[in-house]
Design goal:
This protein is α/β, with parallel strands linked by helices. The chain has two domains: 5-193, 2-enoyl-CoA Hydratase, Chain A, domain 1; 195-248. Helices cover 52% and strands 16% of the residues. The chain has ten helices and nine strands. It has helices at residues 29-44, 66-70, 74-89, 105-112, 139-156, 164-170, 181-194, 197-210, 216-231, 234-248, and strands at 4-10, 13-19, 50-55, 94-98, 101-103, 115-118, 123-125, 162-163, 175-176. β1 and β2 form a beta hairpin.
Length: 250
């Protein structure tokens, strides 16, 4: 079977699955390019309000393909990055459904999502120093923002492997799911699917912007224009009318 990124768009959610079982879903240049293209297609599909990325069991993603990595220099590394960076740059809300090992570039892929949910067998492994290579793809920046400097140092410098429960405890993952991870991700995405798409995307842009601010008043200023725009949109008028009708029937 050919390694591929399987893509399905259903019920407002795009599910992208890395399907390369023989290599535990390691990212080749081709798979990274396929992933970037699949993300782009999801963003272009106005029916899609959220994106889920996962790996064919039992792994999430074992990292960059070792043969590809061995011969890579700057251009090659950036081509490997392109897949998970497309998730990091995605304008849609994103969820990583991590059911197994997320290693190296696979860790980066998980970190690139807005939210991570994990199955019992999930584990997060930096692995870079174990291979004798420096971390890349923005890993050191992403991990410190999520878990703080001490936990990031433990994972990056001392090779600490973080399992599912520890990931939730540290804030690396939102929750542990015992059942179907993709269905749990779809359930998590439901409120985003129900929201007006333009307001949803604007809210994600604002979250990214306000994360860089240090002053409350600057955040108020950043939010005011898109909030006013949403208040004058037909979607708000229609939803307000439905809410008033429902309240009047209570």
């Amino acid at each position: 079977m050919t390694d591929q990124i399987r893509s399905s768009h259903d019920g407002g959610v795009a599910v992208l699955t890395i399907d390369a079982p023989a290599t535990r879903n390691a990212l080749t240049l081709d798979l990274s390019a396929q992933l970037a293209e699949a993300v782009s297609r999801a963003e272009a599909d106005e029916r899609v309000h959220a994106l889920v990325v996962t790996g064919a069991p039992p792994a999430f993603c074992a990292g960059a393909d070792l043969d590809t990595l061995a011969g890579a220099r700057e251009d090659g590394l950036r081509a490997i990055y392109d897949g998970f960076l497309s998730v990091a740059r995605c304008s849609l809300p994103t969820i990583a459904a991590v059911g197994g090992a997320a290693v190296g570039a696979g860790l980066n892929l998980a970190l690139a999502a807005d939210v991570r949910i994990v199955g019992p067998k999930a584990k997060f492994v930096a692995r870079f120093l174990d291979l004798g290579i420096h971390p890349g793809g923005g890993m050191t920046w992403m991990i410190q923002r999520l878990v703080g400097p001490q936990k990031a140092a433990a994972m990056t410098l001392f090779g600490e492997v973080v399992g599912a429960e520890a990931a939730v405890e540290s804030g690396l993952a939102l929750r542990l799911v015992e059942g179907d991870l993709v269905e749990a991700a779809r359930e998590l995405a439901k409120p985003a699917v129900g929201a007006p798409r333009d307001v949803l995307l604007a809210t994600k842009r604002t979250l990214r912007h306000t994360a860089t601010l240090t002053d409350h008043s600057a955040a108020v200023d950043a939010e005011i224009e898109p909030q006013v725009a949403s208040l004058t949109a037909p979607a708000f008028t229609e939803r307000l009318a439905r809410l008033r009708a429902a309240l009047s029937n209570c």
